[in-house]
Amino acid sequence: MRRTVRRLADQREIIYFDDSPDPPERTATDERDLPEQAGGSEIRRDPLTGEWVALAAHRQTRTYKPPADLCPLCPSTPGRPTEVPESSYDVVVFENRFPSFSQVNGLGRCEVVCFTSEHTTSFGELPASRVCTIVDAWADRTAALAELPGVEQVFPFENRGEEIGVTLAHPHGQIYGYPFVTPKTERMLTVAREHGRSPMGDVLAMERADGSRVLATSEHWTAFVPAAARWPVEVHLVPHRQVPDLPALTDAERDDFARVYLRVLHMLDGLYDRPLPYIAAWHQAPVRTGRDLSWLHLEVFSVLRTADKLKYLAGSESGMAVWINDVLPEDLATRLRALDRGLLLG
Ligand SMILES: [Zn+2]
């Protein structure tokens, strides 16, 4: 893998991660006349819950569902410059032009990760070698963002599908460097402190012994539907070794993750016989606190409870943060296991 750092016209960083044999030098310059980077976001703390809210009114002007020939994440072509000056790329990361959190006002950072230069494909269709490059890019960015002043937690994630609110169809994810530890992570750390360690080791041992919710296991990872799943479709991918974050994974663990995750994504797309809209969220340790109490894992979930019905976050979920799930996790696991093409994929 080769890594090249460049700057866009408005001084945002762009980083190429190349896995192709003999990739071209990444020397293309951004010829666009761009206005200065938008700052403008602000964080305020809710005095009743102690939780932070980001106010990012400038994001209302961001690109919204452009036609494929105006996609800002495709490589540039002569006469049509995009966010990526090169005419091709493998994986590329750049600072978001419309960030929810921004270094401009010292409040974290938001980056975009393009998984492939191909506009009409999806993460689940990528080869395992490309998934490894993406994991390397996530790890690289996690380490880099953790070094920035004011970043307290790094969150790589992918939103996929219109039902999730994705405004660009091109296969991509984002990385948020939050200027605080997120409420979800705070909650998990509180429970871990009560136990004196992360409960994930016990969860993993229990799920592996029981097996009824397990979807796939490998040398280094287990994928399962959690016993107390909140969403109609929810899968957790957990490494067998306790590590705080992606940079701590070995090469063997990264390779193994790529294979297990692709298996899971194939199962998910088979569930309703249509590309599943999903959110894939990496739970990583905060930068400065609770690192020995954290256990890296990926949570993948969908808002779709049948092929065409959405689960809405209604009164109980939105008002009180109490989830009511109509789908029994064991039943979901049985249905997903029946769709496993793992053996065919090797
Ligand atoms: Zn595109």
TrEMBL record:
State which pathway it belongs to: Carbohydrate metabolism; galactose metabolism
* Matches recorded under Pfam families: GalP_UDP_tr_C, GalP_UDP_transf
User: What keywords does the record list, in alphabetical order?
Assistant: Carbohydrate metabolism, Galactose metabolism, Metal-binding, Nucleotidyltransferase, Transferase, Zinc
Which terms under GO biological process does the entry name? galactose catabolic process via UDP-galactose, Leloir pathway
Q: Give residue ranges for domain Galactose-1-phosphate uridyl transferase C-terminal.
A: 193-340
Binding-site positions, Zn(2+): C71, C74, H119, H170
The catalytic activity of this protein is classed by the Enzyme Commission as 2.7.7.12
The record's InterPro entries line, in alphabetical order, gives:
GalP_UDPtransf1, GalP_UDPtransf1_His-AS, GalP_Utransf_C, GalP_Utransf_N, HIT-like_sf
Mind naming one GO cellular-component term on file for this protein? cytoplasm
The catalytic residues are H172
Q: Which reaction does it catalyse?
A: alpha-D-galactose 1-phosphate + UDP-alpha-D-glucose = alpha-D-glucose 1-phosphate + UDP-alpha-D-galactose
Name the coenzymes or cofactors required: Zn(2+)
Q: Where is this region: Disordered?
A: 13-45
* Residue stretches making up the Galactose-1-phosphate uridyl transferase N-terminal domain: 105-181
Please give the NCBIfam families that the UniProt record associates with this protein: galT_1 (TIGR00209)
Q: Which family does it belong to?
A: Belongs to the galactose-1-phosphate uridylyltransferase type 1 family.
Q: What is this protein called?
A: Galactose-1-phosphate uridylyltransferase
What species is this protein from? Herbihabitans rhizosphaerae
What broad taxonomic lineage does this protein's source fall under?
A: Bacteria, Bacillati, Actinomycetota, Actinomycetes, Pseudonocardiales
